[in-house]
């Protein structure tokens, strides 16, 4: 039966009934828009490269900058979710980050563009809030699926922006603006959407099923706010195993979002529009692939426990690494697209499985664990970015190295015991239920 102030045990994606489902839908929509603003510049880089006279090394630095700031931001945002609440945190993040998104067009130098790309990258911390908010809105039986669907549909913004931003750009060119002006005007669109949605999120969501942190009773507030510290979350080796895993899956996803259109444009001599569509296809798989990972993880967890989820994650990472290495060796556009879709499936499923494990590592510090693991994704992207900026390593070689690195991470994850003793596990399950109540 539906309960207005308890976590839901079922995910009905067609329902907007109750604060839980309303928050679920607004959360993935917010993350979608954040991704749209975060990577809105990526499909326009061929134009920006010419406009600002950027070198391969400078583009590499820009790719790194776009994900570097998120490392620190995700850890800080995770802590804010635990103490300040996801509603205020998300609204503030979208409102503040809409400013550099809207105004990046004011820059006319590499240095200025680099700083703006760094500032825009902070919005990537939105993922941590998305996962925190869905974790407290859904029961432990379904939380992996809920997290995966919300995260996947939000990540879809990375694919849609590769398809839509070139069209917005073309619209301004069609209206008579020169390309060097059109890309600047195009970025105002996602910036305005973020600003508007920050007010909607603040108005129509709640921190928990029972209400906002500053509205619920002192007892319930302490149950949510008095969680384990960031240091406590960091002491658990399982947190760092997931940190590595997320760097190997989500870190490579956002790297590919940044580089895909340029890679197809330069390696296979496609048009800007075709390159954007192909890159967008990679992101579009988030419509279902990450959710599949979460659903499978929940089923495996019910049958084999946390250890089963850990083995599933290791397997998916290994398959992802093999797929990326094969993609790098593609000699034709058709083979490249097929291998891209294959490794994308395993990568995005691994994303979903990772955050089907996160809520159970330390339920007293969901935000902190989520923040650390989420930061791992960006650390992976930063490290991958150094390969793509190298003047001696081709993009294809970089993908091969990445595939090998992911296989190594898979081996590490396979060796980690994600189970704890029965007493600790029972206490953590009780804590998770208390946080959601």
TrEMBL record:
BP-aspect Gene Ontology terms: nitrate assimilation
Gene3D superfamilies: MFS general substrate transporter like domains
TM region positions: 26-47, 59-77, 89-108, 114-132, 153-177, 183-202, 240-265, 271-289, 310-328, 334-358, 365-386, 398-418
Predominant localisation class: membrane
MF GO annotations: nitrate transmembrane transporter activity; nitrite transmembrane transporter activity
UniProt KW keywords: Cell membrane, Membrane, Nitrate assimilation, Transmembrane, Transmembrane helix, Transport
Database matches in CDD domains: MFS_NRT2_like
Subcellular location: Cell membrane; Membrane
Start and end residues of each Major facilitator superfamily (MFS) profile domain: 23-423
Protein family membership: Belongs to the major facilitator superfamily. Nitrate/nitrite porter (TC 2.A.1.8) family.
PANTHER family for this protein: HIGH-AFFINITY NITRATE TRANSPORTER 2.3 (PTHR23515)
Protein name (Swiss-Prot/TrEMBL): Nitrate/nitrite transporter
